[in-house]
Amino acid sequence: MGNVVQIVLAAGGSSRMGQPKQLLKIDGQTMVRRAVQAARATANRVVVVTGAAGSEVYYELRDLAGLLFAYNPRWEEGMGRSVAIGVATANIHSTEAYFITLADQPLIETRHLERYLEAYRKAPDQIIATAYSEGPGVPAIFPARLVNDLLKLEGRGGAKKLILREWDSLSLIDASPVTFDVDTPEDYNKVVGRIIE
Q1: Which domain holds residue 135?
Q2: Which of 15, 64, 150, 169 gets the most CB atoms within 10 Å of its CB?
Q3: Partners of 102 in the beta sheet?
Q4: What 8-state DSSP symbol labels residue 53?
């Protein structure tokens, strides 16, 4: 899927963790590296959006060839701006879709991302999003027809409003429990011990 750009969001401030969660290790590998390695296996182009701890994240990934880095100076305003910056960095004419993933879902592997890509191949004009109890979200694939909407995203809602607006052209994937977010020390301990509810 060379024309699907992977955008890994790694800009958050980790306020509930108390330290940069992107750099916490699972099985000897940082969460951000795990996310980026999974993304690289499914796309020719990968954009990593940094913000808080941006220089540390860049240093952690500097040896991986072919990455594009984008810095969100307004990372504290929420995920929406990070999505927009990632899309702007990746936006070239041949892009078919934008695959948004998160650096704080360390249980997601390449085989899980392939499920989204398979669904996209079957319905390339639809959004392929993740089903959560609180509503749809990312990981999600957005077709290029929505690029202008993605570039306008702001705030903490990320792309959720856009996903909900496109409800009639939406496919949902239940990827639990691998889409478990690591936000707190308790979450991290659960993932390390693989005790996910």
Answers
A1: 4-192
A2: 150
A3: 9
A4: B
